[in-house]
């Protein structure tokens, strides 16, 4: 024997309709003074009240739906009013969507009459369980209920066989049982069984209920008409539950049993343990970031707030799935979460955009007439500083979020419908998905523009040497989240949670974790610090200089290389007096604030440079005076009291070599360097160089 449950308008003609398994009924507070004059005791009195309400509109009437049944209950209300010729009442009935959550009025306080399914009522009374109508907890005994029409029916292929549930206080009051599972199903079923026992004229369906079902199905509904089978069904119910003539439906309920310790179930559940692996991932990321000192590296500095915000964002987003949080003001919370996710996504996007802007800053400056655009260059140098970078990326992201996050405000209008939860999750997926898609498009465009490099030098060069900050690798990693978002949609609960955990891993890896790992690897491989003299030797090799220059460009530290090369040129005249014009040009290019290639040197060294520059200016005046007096110019330039180029070289070379040494330590981890070093050693041993 096969049995199914069907909605009132979706009855399967190949199965026999046995009995109504659930009803839509009218629920009213017993002592509501607004209802005294109506004497609401049966369906006809409810229908008369609705007719009068369409005229007077003095009552608050609500229709409550829940979860996946939302569309079916909406259709039921429409069909119910049509069947009873009450279409004019529809505008005066409020449709509410039931959900667990604070910051909402109690349904039983809000309405005088509630139209609700017999299956949903046990759940609603345990969620909206305290209010203004009485002290203490509400229970089913505080209400009067009137059955309206069948909502779902039990169908069988042949005969009747019921699967009764064992009922006991120990089973139903166990806090490990989810609120909307066994207990709620039991109370809904026991109500339908009592409805069978107390059917109109000893029948399973009243005459009006048969007409209602026939009206909304396009065939003659096949009913169970055997009185013997009907009697067997009732007898089995009475025997199993030991029902006496004086037994009532309410006596078989367990109003004291509720899993939730608080109203609206903002309690701790087993699902909350998924927070632990996310917290471990986040803590591990920060430990790696700070203990290794990676946060001081250029690769992490260029990411501004991303390494600190995105992992926290993952942790924050996971907490929103916890019933302890999810049921607290869900409407306001979902809007807030939506704006937070949008802001994080846009901030990450602006940070990546800023990186590519800075990476191409040398090219942008080189194609301009520097002499005529000093102010523009100074402005570019200013906004490229971390403080201004944070201010601009965060500020612009906030402004953009106010606009792009507005859809989360729109879904407030759906807060009383079943679509609210679906739309909010859909918007989350759209925001994150758009970010991933844009990242994927950026990767494709980058591959197209750099296809020559990929073809000639391979993927390793493209991902590591040409991108020492690993931005490309992170964008590729982040774009993978779109795959697991799709898996989340089609998988079951555990696949969903595992996929979400993988997404968190990908987000954290894209928040600078890969760069931190590279920093640790670099430190480990270079734990035996090389002498600066080795770097000086390497800088005599043309192949090394070309490779170092290319790497400095990719790492946005070309200023150290160019400044050192300028000092190398000065070595050819190290014993000569420094030319004032060359000194001024050197200061403009490398030393002054907002200079094109401003080098990072200690403040005391910068101070010493300007002291040396004053000496150069003074020596220039002396040279001019000596020339006017007719003294030999060559003799003047060899004066021991005048600053010479070796003074400038000694002042800056050590600090520049230190900066270049940091770059070299990262260059040494690349395949290109290792190949060069092997060839260099062969050439050295062969006395070729």
TrEMBL record:
| Ranges where the RGS domain occurs | 534-598
Keyword set, alphabetical order: Membrane, Transmembrane, Transmembrane helix
According to the record, the segments passing through the membrane are 273-295, 302-319, 331-357, 387-411, 426-449, 469-495, 501-521
State the name under which the record lists this protein.
Predicted protein
Alphabetized SUPFAM superfamilies for the sequence: Regulator of G-protein signaling, RGS (SSF48097)
On whether Transmembrane helix is a keyword of this UniProt record, the answer is yes
InterPro entries, sorted: RGS, RGS_sf, RGS_subdomain_2
């Amino acid at each position: 024997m096969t049995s199914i449950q069907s909605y009132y308008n979706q009855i399967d003609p190949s199965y026999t309709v046995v009995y109504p398994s659930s009803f839509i009924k009218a629920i009213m507070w017993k002592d509501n003074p607004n209802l005294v004059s109506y004497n609401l005791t049966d369906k006809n009195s409810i229908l008369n009240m609705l007719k009068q309400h369409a005229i007077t509109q003095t009552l608050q009437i609500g229709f409550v739906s829940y979860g996946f049944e939302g569309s079916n209950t909406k259709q039921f209300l429409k069909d119910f009013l049509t069947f009873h010729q009450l279409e004019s009442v529809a505008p005066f009935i409020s449709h509410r969507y039931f959900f667990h959550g604070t910051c909402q009025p109690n349904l039983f306080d809000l309405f005088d009459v509630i139209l609700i399914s017999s299956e949903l009522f046990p759940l609603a009374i345990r969620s909206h369980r305290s209010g203004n109508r009485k002290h203490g907890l509400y229970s089913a005994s505080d209400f009067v209920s009137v059955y309206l029409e069948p909502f779902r029916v039990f169908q069988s292929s042949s005969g009747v066989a019921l699967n009764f549930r064992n009922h006991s206080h120990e089973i139903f009051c166990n806090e490990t049982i989810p609120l909307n599972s066994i207990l709620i199903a039991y109370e809904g079923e026991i109500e339908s069984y009592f409805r069978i026992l107390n059917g109109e004229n000893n029948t399973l369906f009243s005459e009006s209920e048969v007409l209602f079902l026939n009206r909304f199905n396009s065939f003659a509904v096949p009913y169970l008409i055997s009185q013997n089978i009907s009697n067997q069904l009732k007898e089995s119910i009475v025997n199993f539950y030991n029902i006496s003539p004086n037994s009532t439906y309410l006596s078989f309920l367990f109003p004291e049993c509720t899993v939730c310790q608080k109203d609206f179930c903002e309690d701790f559940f087993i699902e909350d343990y998924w927070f632990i692996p996310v917290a471990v991932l986040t803590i591990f990321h920060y430990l790696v970031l700070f203990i290794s000192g990676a946060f001081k590296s250029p690769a992490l500095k260029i990411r501004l707030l991303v390494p600190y915000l995105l992992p926290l964002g993952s942790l924050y987003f996971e907490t929103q799935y916890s019933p302890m949080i999810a049921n607290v003001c869900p409407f306001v919370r979902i809007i807030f979460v939506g704006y937070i996710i949008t802001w994080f996504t846009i901030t990450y996007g602006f940070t990546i955009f800023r990186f590519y802007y800075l990476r191409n800053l040398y090219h942008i400056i080189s194609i301009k007439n520097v002499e005529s655009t000093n102010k523009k260059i100074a402005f570019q140098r200013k906004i490229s500083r971390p403080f201004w970078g944070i201010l601009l990326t965060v500020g612009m992201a906030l402004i953009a979020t106010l606009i792009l996050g507005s859809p989360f405000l729109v879904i407030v209008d759906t807060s009383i419908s079943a679509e609210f939860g679906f739309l909010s999750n859909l918007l989350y997926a759209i925001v994150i998905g758009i970010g991933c898609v844009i990242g994927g498009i950026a990767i494709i465009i980058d591959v197209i523009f750099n296809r020559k490099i990929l073809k000639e030098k391979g993927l390793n060069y493209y991902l590591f040497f040409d991108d020492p900050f690993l931005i490309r690798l992170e964008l590729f990693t982040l774009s993978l989240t779109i795959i697991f978002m799709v898996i989340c949609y089609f998988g079951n609960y555990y696949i969903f949670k595992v996929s979400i955990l993988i997404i968190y891993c990908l987000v954290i890896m894209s928040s600078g974790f890969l760069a931190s790992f590279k920093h640790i690897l670099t430190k480990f491989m270079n734990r035996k610090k090389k002498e600066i003299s080795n770097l000086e030797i390497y800088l005599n090799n043309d192949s090394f200089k070309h490779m170092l220059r290319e790497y400095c460009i990719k790492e946005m530290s070309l200023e150290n290389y160019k400044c050192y090369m300028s000092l190398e040129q000065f070595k050819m005249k190290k014993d000569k007096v420094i030319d004032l014009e060359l000194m001024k040009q050197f200061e403009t290019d490398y030393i002054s604030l907002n200079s094109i290639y401003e080098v990072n040197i200690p403040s005391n060294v910068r101070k010493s440079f300007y002291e040396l520059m004053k000496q150069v200016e003074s020596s220039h005046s002396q040279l001019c005076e000596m020339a006017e007096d007719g003294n030999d110019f060559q003799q003047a330039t060899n004066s021991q009291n005048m600053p010479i180029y070796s003074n400038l070289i000694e002042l800056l070379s050590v600090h520049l070599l230190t900066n270049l040494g940091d770059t070299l330590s990262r260059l040494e981890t690349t395949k290109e360097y290792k190949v060069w070093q092997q060839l260099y050693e062969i050439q050295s041993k062969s006395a070729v160089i």
